[in-house]
Amino acid sequence: MDLSSAFSTIVAELPAIFSMTVVGLVGLVLIVVDAYRNDHPAIPWLGAAALAAASVWEVTQLGAPADTVFFETLRTGGFVAFINLIVLLTGLATTLLSIPYLNQLRHDYGEVYALILYATVGMIMLGSSNNMISIFLGLETMSVCLYVLTGLIREDEGAVESALKYFLLGAFSTGFFLYGIALMYGATGTMVLPEMAAADLATTSTQLLFWGGFALFLVGFFFKVSAAPFHMWTPDVYQGAPTPLTGYMSTATKAAAFAALILVLVHAVPGGEWQLVLAAVAVLTMVMGNVMALAQTNVKRLLAYSSIAHAGYVLVGLAAGTQAGYAGALFYLLVYAVMNIGAFGVMALLEWDGKEGREQTLSSLAGIADRRPILGTTMGVFMFSLIGFPPLGGFAGKYFVFAPAVEAGLTWLVVIGVLMSALSAYYYLRVVYVFWMQSAAEVEATNPVTEAAFPPATRMAMGTLVVCAVALVVLGIFFGGVLETTAGFFEASAMAAAP
Predict the structure, then answer these.
(1) pLDDT over 70 for what percent of the chain?
(2) Helix (H) and strand (E) counts for the chain?
(3) In whole numbers, what is the pLDDT of the chain averaged over residues?
(4) Of 290, 334, 275, nearest to 489 (Cα)?
(5) Whose C-alpha in 33, 54, 70, 389 is 20 to 30 A from the C-alpha of 113?
(6) What residue segments make up the domains of the chain, in order of their start?
(7) What is the dihedral of CA 265, 270, 272, 276, to 10 degrees?
(8) Which residues pair with 74 in a beta bridge?
(9) At what angle do helices 132-150 and 110-127 cross, to 10 degrees?
């Protein structure tokens, strides 16, 4: 690698990472503003403006051809723009939902929004990586920010416990991840993903070294996407973290991590050797997530196990190992982000216990739809979409990850996925029942919750939820354009356009 003109090359290629640059620079601005004007009310709006501007830019890049920048460490083009758009819009929705929520908790710290921006920067790097080093940097930048955000309410023992669990288990998984990268590098002599695929694994020892490293590498990724059996941290962390930030963790993190995994599967280890491994993990993840969700009385824990199950659905598409499977997985990540941001957003606006919803039971929300019909209606849309009811986006998303798996000969896997989706209807519909059909009088007389206990809902937060609900209807009906776009990312000509 010739580094004699490295500086001029980097400067010339900065426009290619416009989103990462803008979000990172505005994050610095927020830190400086907060240092001189502590917790200034303009700080979250500056962050939201940066995320909105970056989102607009990524929309213009959806049709751009695939390419690499910064000495083949990062990829650009349609696939990357699509993932960046999911991450940026998720960050924007989280910011808008966090403003009233954190004000209510009196923890509307300026640094929170800077951390959201820098977590977003890490996710963008993770989802656009073409090199194992950039994957690691993106993963750790994202993770460190999320550790801090999880323990934001330092006075609450539940938040501190969640942050500590997330940090310790995350550090443990990073060890697997790094050791796997080291073994893969030892077998191939390169960190660049396409060069790994082209490496000569002529001997049995190098093959064992590479596939052993890849197995450890997958462990690290499975932890980040909450796939079983590496999911044990998810319910506790989601329950103790601030609710809008929990939605951010459950959606943007999965989008970025799955994007990086897709890039590795397509460029570094093309072939079917890993298909049955992903299928087995998908089965375990779907079964574990859905079965455990049945017994939950806390909505955040219920949504945490739901998040685990949906990681399994995405893995079904990846297990197919085809263009249609990868395209369907991308579409599902978009739909899932909208569904979960909306569901956690509703819970943030109905949180009354002052402990990030950690002690709040589903039954305490009985009849809430009569008092807050917009929240009840949007929550109903999110729940039906999570089940997979037509014509909502959740139905289209599940169809487009299941159909490629059938075509790839994994019919048994799809049968399990459909059965688990049917099982999930029980706990999702239970939420709808409590919101709409159960009156507060049916709950125990000792229930202390009154209308005054619920935080006020701002127009911006309510508008964000309505937009998410409408988006699910639009994605469920007019899915063709989005799916055609994602399928184009994996055409042979598009994949060969960049090294």
Answers:
(1) 92
(2) 21, 2
(3) 87
(4) 334
(5) 70
(6) 12-495
(7) -20
(8) 69, 129
(9) 150
CB atoms within 10 A of CB 474: 15
Q: What is the pLDDT of residues 127-145, one digit of tens each?
A: 999 999 999 999 999 999 9
Encode burial over 278-291: b for 16+ CB neighbours within 10 A, e otherwise.
bbebbbbbbbbbbe
Residue 298 DSSP symbol: B
Vertex 457: Cα angle to 453 and 462 (nearest 5)? 145
The secondary structure of 118-178 as a DSSP string is: HHHHHHHHHHTBSBHHHHHHHHHHHHHHHHHHHT--TT-HHHHHHHHHHHHHHHHHHHHHH
Q: Contact 18/57 with Cβ under 8 angstroms? A: yes
Residue 76, helix vs strand vs coil: strand
Residue 129 forms beta bridges with which residues?
A: 74
At 19 the pLDDT is: 92
Written as one string, the DSSP assignment of 171-239 is HHHHHHHHHHHHHHHHHHS--BHHHHHHS---SHHHHHHHHHHHHHHHHHHHHHTT-TTS-TTHHHHHH
- One-letter amino acid identity for 80? V
Which structure tokens are listed for 43?
């700080």
**pLDDT tens digits for range 328-380:** 999 999 999 999 999 999 998 888 766 666 778 888 888 888 888 899 999 99
Structure pTM?
0.93
Torsion, CA 92, CA 97, CA 98, CA 99, rounded to 10 = 100
Label residues 307-343 b or e (16+ Cβ within 10 Å = b): bbbbbbbbbbbbbbbbbbbbbbbbbbbbbbbbbbbbb
The identity of residue 234, as a single letter, is: T
Asked whether residue 99 carries a pLDDT value surpassing 60, the answer given is yes
Please calculate the CA angle 287-250-451 and round it to the nearest 5 degrees: 100
Select from 404, 417, 398 the least CA-distant residue to 475: 398
Q: Which residues contact 303 (CB under 8 A, 6 or more apart)?
A: 238, 246, 250, 340, 343, 344, 347
Region of residue 457 (left: phi > 0; alpha: psi -120 to 50; beta: else): beta
Angle between helical axes of 323-349 and 78-105 (0-180°, round to 10)? 10
Report the Cα–Cα distance between both ends of the chain, in Å, rounded: 15
% of residues, the chain, pLDDT over 90 = 56
